[in-house]
Each structure stands twice: as C-alpha cells, then as structure tokens.
Design a protein that fits this description.
Nucleotidyltransferase, domain 5, 20 helices
Length: 515
C-alpha cells in the first residue's frame, strides 16, 4: 500500500505576513507553539520557510486581493511604483482630477528617473491593476464633487437632520484625520516666522479619531507614522498599544489605510450586531468599500468646518490635552536634568491615547450640538466650555517651562497646527529623493536618528519593578481601586512564573552544553 500523500498547506501571502508579525511581536514564542496557534502542527517545514523569509513578508502591501494569493510576484519596477503611488495620493489630496492617461504619463516620467527601470511600460493592463490596488476610482469619484456654497448651509443642515433622524444618537458616528506635530515646542518664533538658526521640529504623525454623537463610544485612535517599526517600539508588543499603528513613508492617510480601517469598523459592528451611520468628509483618501453594518455618508464639500463635529471642537479638545501631557513631560525632563531628551513616538502614542481618553462625553455631545446637524437639538453657542480650563492649565505649564527661547501663549500653542492637513504635496524631485531614500536605506526601523531602541526588560527586571510598584501603591494614603491592585498582582505572578521558566531553561541549556 503506497504511503498516504501529505496534505499540502497553501498559506495565503497575507497569512504568512500575520504569522511573521506575530513571531516578531512575541520573540520568545517557540515554533511548536506558533504552529499550534496557526494550525500548522503538520506543516512545520512550511512554517520554517515562512519565518526564514519574514523580512520579505513583513514588507509586503496586501491591499485589494493581493493578500489572497499564495505567492507574490516580485515587482519589476518598485521605485516607479512607489513614486507614482506617492504622486497620485498627493494629487488627489490636492483635489486634482486625474485621468488614466495622466497617471500613465506621470509613471513613465518617474521611471526615467531610475536608471534600472527604464524599461517600464505604462500599459492599459498596468493601469487597471494600479487603479484597482489603490482604489483610484473611488478617489476620482469623490474628488470631482463640486464645493457646496456656504449659502446652502441651512439646506444642507436640514438634509442631514432628516437623514440622522432615522438613527439613534448612539449609532451616528463621525471620523476625521488631523496632522499632529508631536514634538512641537511652544517657541514663539515658530508662531510668527521662520527665524535664522531656529529649527522647527516638524515631526508629524497623522491621527484618525472617531466617536458617536452621544459621546458613549470613542473608537481606538489610528496613528500613522513614517516607520514600519520605530526603534522606540522595537521591544513592544504592537497589539498591546492603546492605538492602532500603521505607517507609510510620508505618514499620510491614504485610501488603502482608510479602507482597512473601515473594514475593521464594519467587522466590529457585525460582532456587536449593530448598524451605524458614519459621517466623513469627501477627502479623496476616503475610499469606501462594500460593508454590511456601516453606511457611509459624505458631508458636502467645503462645509466640514461648519458641519463636521470633529472639526467643531473635538479634535481641538484632543490636541489641547495632548499639549498638556507634552508640556508636563518637558517640565519633568528639565527637573530631572535631562533638557535634551526628546519625546519618542512611543511617548507620543501613549500621550495621544491619554488625551483621547480625556475628551469627555459632555464635550463630544456639545460639539455635535454646536454644528447643529442632529434633529431636535438647539445650537450650542460654545462647543466646549471645558477647553478654557485646559487652556489655563497649559498657560501655567508654559510659564513653568525653563527654556532658552521666547514662549508662545497657550492660545498660540493650541492653534499652531490647527490647520495641519493629514497629507502633504511634495514636488517631483522630492518624490524621487524620497523613493531613493526608501530603497537605498530601506528605512530600516526608524525615521529619526535621535531615537534609540529601548533595551528589552528581562523577566527578573519586570518582576522587581512590579514588586516595587505594588509596595508603593500599598503605602499610599488614598484608597486605590482593588481591581487595579488585583491586576498588578496578577502581572506579578505572571512575571514570577516567567522568571522560573527562564531559570529552568538556563539549567537545561547548561546541562546540554556539558554533554
């Protein structure tokens, strides 16, 4: 009887990437455990091959249906593809109307800038594939919409009120992005003009925030940075972050990332057996997709500052809290004698999450009322009365800050990046330089040479830190939440178990080396 034929495990490219990402996020996991987790107990050799090529799989982009394929065809003209992708996104975000012929001509132009890619042909087949991958049809459709005259605002409000009357306040959501200079100092020269010898720290990230009109549900923020794995996050389990982190070379929102976010929102609402209405502006990067539980409604062009709740004070409140946390960080560093220690992207992520938590349901409720699009509500004259208190706190912190430059007022500091878009418009030479930087340096793990990786803590260090934290909490005069203390003790027991396992593994290794 011939031996049974082994079953071939054909993993999709997207699944291979998920396996590799999990392996990177959990560096101490054993391959046997990983195989069990992904149901590959009988395909250990397949798993080994995937992990041996993890760098390749982690760098792939699986938008559209690319992730469903089991093999990836190597891109023959990678620099041209990267350049035309950046250019198209910038053009669409600048409300330029693109045709297929324009995209083809521009792609050929960029290919001439890369000596190894002179054989590129912008065929109709290439154009179709490119448009499908990047959702260009959706971009063009929304990018061509005409701006609504401000005189039509009452009519637009009435139309929105009629639409929103079909939903409960809990099921009406708004989402919007904003650029954030996460290291920006309150330097007065930055608020007026570019001063010789003064470098404006313009490290920018993009943040997408979303919430419902009742203020009862704030979605986890989406943060877009410039590095796939910033050095400050190298030893961090990315799944444990209080935000969703994504990246591209310019830290922009684009159609692929937005569609991924939409699909995640739709899946969340499906699990909760809810159907919601999502209001968004008509930015070209807001490419939609087929969804069962989320209905998208685009706000009229040129009206977002009047009709969009997040633009009506919610983002302003979020940024005020972020600036407060940043100033407290700066003051602590100066007090500790570390005035030159920079805020890392990891710090910014946690500050952003904390700032979003500080935005209260009352603030959200007031901002929705302020834009007057909900049926049966009265227009609120002030979107957020608590902002004045936060502004006063920020002014006190600015006054405490010991820095060698003239300082902004709190009002100036809060408005310095109020109009920062979630995208940029680079020139052709800048795009070519950017692409060459991407492929020549590979953006290894960081876009910031000043940022250093944090050393990975051992189980012993983690155990000792938790023991000291619990001891400090027990000595506090105020009563702490018992659930919080139970969580700390649970983490301590887990750390103690890991210490025991590490010692046992060391003993086994020593025994094997002796023999």
């Amino acid at each position: 009887m011939p031996p049974a034929e082994k079953k071939r495990h054909a993993l999709s490219a997207e699944m291979k990437q998920k396996i590799c990402q999990y392996y990177v996020d959990h560096p101490k996991i054993k391959q046997k455990e990983l195989a069990t987790l992904f149901n590959l107990q009988n395909a250990r050799s397949t798993l080994t091959k995937v992990l041996n090529n993890k760098e390749k799989w982690l760098q792939q982009d699986f938008s559209g249906n690319a992730g469903e394929k089991t093999r990836l065809r190597q891109c023959k003209y990678p620099r041209t593809m990267e350049a035309i992708s950046i250019w198209v996104m910038a053009a669409l975000n600048n409300n330029q109307i693109l045709s297929g012929a324009i995209i083809q001509q521009k792609a050929i132009f960029f290919s001439q800038a890369f000596p190894d890619e002179l054989g590129f042909k912008a065929s109709e087949g290439w154009l179709t594939t490119f448009k499908d991958k990047h959702g260009i049809r959706s971009y063009i459709h929304h990018g061509e919409a005409n701006s609504a005259p401000l005189a039509d605002l009452p009519t637009e409000r009435a139309n929105l009120q009629e639409l929103l009357s079909q939903y409960s306040r809990d099921d009406i959501y708004n989402a919007d992005e904003s650029g954030l200079f996460f290291r920006l100092l309150p330097n007065r020269s930055l608020a007026t003009s570019q001063t010789s010898g003064v470098k404006r720290d313009k490290e920018r990230i993009t943040i997408l925030l979303a919430c419902n009109s009742s203020g009862t549900h704030k979605l986890k923020p989406l943060i877009i940075g410039k590095a796939r794995r910033p050095l400050a996050l190298r030893s961090v389990n990315m799944n444990s972050l209080p935000v969703t982190y994504r990246w591209n070379s310019k830290a922009w929102m684009n159609g692929e990332l937005f569609q991924e976010w939409l699909k995640g929102l739709d899946a969340m609402m499906a699990r909760r057996q809810r159907k919601i209405l999502l209001l968004i502006d008509n930015a070209p990067c807001h490419a939609t997709c087929d969804m069962e539980n989320v209905k998208v409604h685009f706000l009229p062009p040129n009206t977002t500052s009047h009709l969009q709740p997040l633009d009506g004070g919610i983002i302003k409140s979020f940024k005020a809290h972020y600036r407060k946390f940043h100033l407290q960080f700066l003051i602590d560093k100066y007090d500790d004698g570390l005035p030159n220690e920079k805020l890392t992207i990891k710090d910014a992520i946690y500050f952003a999450a904390d700032a979003w938590n500080e935005v209260t349901p009352a603030t959200i409720h007031n901002c929705w009322n302020h834009v007057d699009i909900l049926p049966g509500t009265q227009l609120a004259m002030e979107p957020d009365s608590s902002l004045q208190d936060t502004r006063s706190e920020i002014q006190c912190l600015i006054d405490q800050l010991n820095v060698p430059f003239a300082k902004m007022t709190a009002q100036q500091y809060l408005e310095i990046d109020s109009n920062t878009p979630a995208h940029d418009i680079p020139s052709d030479p800048e795009i070519i330089e950017e692409v060459n930087n991407i492929f020549d340096s590979q953006y290894e793990d960081t876009d910031d040479p000043d940022e250093e990786p944090l050393p990975r803590m051992s189980a012993v260090n983690g155990r000792d830190a938790l023991e000291n934290t619990i001891r400090w909490c027990e000595q506090l005069e105020e009563n702490l939440d018992e659930k919080f203390l139970r969580t700390l003790r649970f983490l301590l027991r887990d750390a103690q178990r890991k210490v025991h396992n590490e010692k046992k593994q060391i003993s086994i290794d020593v025994f094997l080396n002796k023999n």
